[in-house]
Amino acid sequence: MVDLDQSAGAAAPITHIKPPASTAALEHRNLLEGEFWRKIPAYEKVDRETFLDWKWQAKNSVNKVSKLLAGLQDLVPQSFYDDVQEGFARAPMAVRVSPYVLSLIDWVEPYNDPLRIQFIPVASRMKPDHPFLDLDSLHEKADAPVPGLTHRYPDKALFLPLNTCPVYCRYCTRSYAIGPDTEEVEKFALRVNKERWAKAFQYILERPELEDIVISGGDAYQLRPEQIEYIGNKLLELPNVRRLRFATKGLAIMPSKVLTDHDWLDAITRVVDRGRALHKEVCIHTHFNHANEFTWISRDACNVLMERGITVRNQSVLIRGVNDTVDTMSMLVRRIAYHNVHPYYVYTHDMVKGVDELRTTVGTAVEVEKHIRGTTAGFNTPTFVCDAPGGGGKRGVHSYEYYDRVHGVSVYTAPNVKPGEYFCYFDPIDLLPEEGRNRWANPDEHSKIVDEALERARADR
Ligand SMILES: *Cc1c(COP(=O)(O)O)cnc(C)c1O
Ligand code: SF4
User: Fold this and answer.
1) pLDDT value of residue 186
2) C-alpha 63 to ligand 2 mean position (Å)
3) Rounded distance from Cα 394 to ligand 1 centre (Å)
4) Which end of the chain has fewer beta carbons closer than 10 Å to its terminal beta carbon, N or C?
5) Low-confidence ranges of the chain (pLDDT < 50)
6) Ligand 2 atom nearest residue 175's Cα
7) Helical H segments across 278-325, by residue range
């Protein structure tokens, strides 16, 4: 209790130097409460217990336009369904949206909603691909000694035990592998397979320099409790392994699983506890992109993880129309940090096919980062990175050797990962000044644009 009894103390009134905080400055603490899903026609009669049930969430996820129609009914006009139908057909990722996400979308204005933008493709907003886009732009397959294990950095590796997620994000960097095949893309198989996993464990053991393993995917939400424990224990038993991270988007799109899938939560807790006993760190990396994803259900889930002593960090992707302004990013950072989720990274959107309307420029990333730094604790301040196309790894977004803003070419080096090489990231063409757009319109100019930028980068070094 705060002691407000003025009569008891001698304290003279304090002079405040700063003006009082505005209500807006504390808005990140106000979460969506109540049974917000009931405004969706199909969930009108769904009670709290049912809505929180992770099995119900998984079973009722939307992966077809017919299911979207059944869920929303006349909340949106037929023209929107037609647009989505066409969007589904053209998207490189399969579509899967949880009832939780569906309930958080503003269906009065679905075109501009930050959650709709991330999960439900509409054909009318799609832009032509940049000529240098690629499905596996990070070259994860090229850096994989065994399928599903990418060893790019000296002491850490990325293990992909499976290829499914509870939702599919349109901007996924692993559209080469994640989710079922689509009309556009036949996927590279990374199914659950203990023999493939055993090869990964063997490889990690044979590389004593590997200390840090990211278990991603796919999504750790999709691993059964016994699989979580099996993978966790196998890796913790390797003497060289010191740190594990289980990556899951779950907290952002289906937080109630933490509250209702007790076996899953207990399995992960046992791995964390075993790690702690061995003086090895095991934590969760999650993936919030917008403050609207964080509701009272997320708060309850984060509180449970806090009580169990599980560290949660967040990796966001900078997405046009979602979190590419100072206000939206600042709200996200403060809201998740308030609930003990540490903002760790903000990635520039990878150069994946079919989603150029979601990407933004390196210049925007640099500008947003400049404003975010200083708003809260340093350890809750995300580092903005560009995962250099072609396998250069993560680079501080502002650490480019050269940035041509007219043609949207930034050139990075990665001395500790691929010494001597240069890596280019390309801004989406529709956001460039006219001069740049015109030059990209001529295919004969493409390699010249790149060569000029590389030449300048070399000269500037
Ligand atoms: C991102 C990533 C890691 C982990 O990198 P951190 O900077 O430590 O988060 C490891 N391996 C690969 C291939 C990655 O892409
Ligand atoms: S949860 Fe991660 S791996 Fe799965 S679709 Fe989204 S970005 Fe891709």
Assistant:
1) 59
2) 15
3) 7
4) N
5) none
6) 8
7) 296-307
The span from the CA of 450 to the CA of 437, in Å, is 14
- Best residue for ligand 1 mutational test, from 153, 203, 213, 286 (most atoms within 8 Å of Cβ): 153
Residue 429 tokens read as 């063409």
H/E element holding 187?
none
Q: How far apart are CA 329 and CA 179, in angstroms?
A: 28
Q: What whole-number distance in Å separates Cα of residue 292 and Cα of residue 112?
A: 13
Let me know: does 249 contact 210? Beta carbons within 8 Å.
no
Looking only at the bridges linking them, the beta strands covering 422-426 and 402-404 are unpaired
pLDDT at 181: 64
**In the prediction, which pLDDT does 104 show?**
98
pLDDT on residue 184? 63
Give the whole-angstrom CA distance, residue 434 versus residue 4: 61
Could you give all domains of the chain from N- to C-terminal order, each with its CATH number?
Answer: 36-125 (no CATH), 149-398 (3.20.20.70), 400-461 (no CATH)
Residue nearest to atom 6 of ligand 2 (CA): 169
pLDDT at 11: 81
Pocket of ligand 2 (CB under 6 A): 165, 168-169, 172, 174, 178, 217, 219, 249
Residues 15 and 202: their CA atoms lie apart, in Å, by 64
3-state class (DSSP) for residue 342:
strand
Length of the chain: 461
* CA 108/CA 124 separation, integer angstroms: 17
Q: Which residues line ligand 1 (CB under 6 A)?
A: 150, 152-153, 156-158, 214, 394
Edge-first strand order for the sheet with 409-413 is: 402-404, 409-413, 422-426
- Give 214: exposed, middle or buried? Use CB within 10 Å, 0-12, 13-18, 19+: middle
Residue 405 tokens read as: 């803003």
Position 188 scores a pLDDT of: 62
CA 278 – CA 244 distance, rounded (Å): 12
Do the Cβ atoms of 312 and 342 come closer than 8 Å?
A: yes
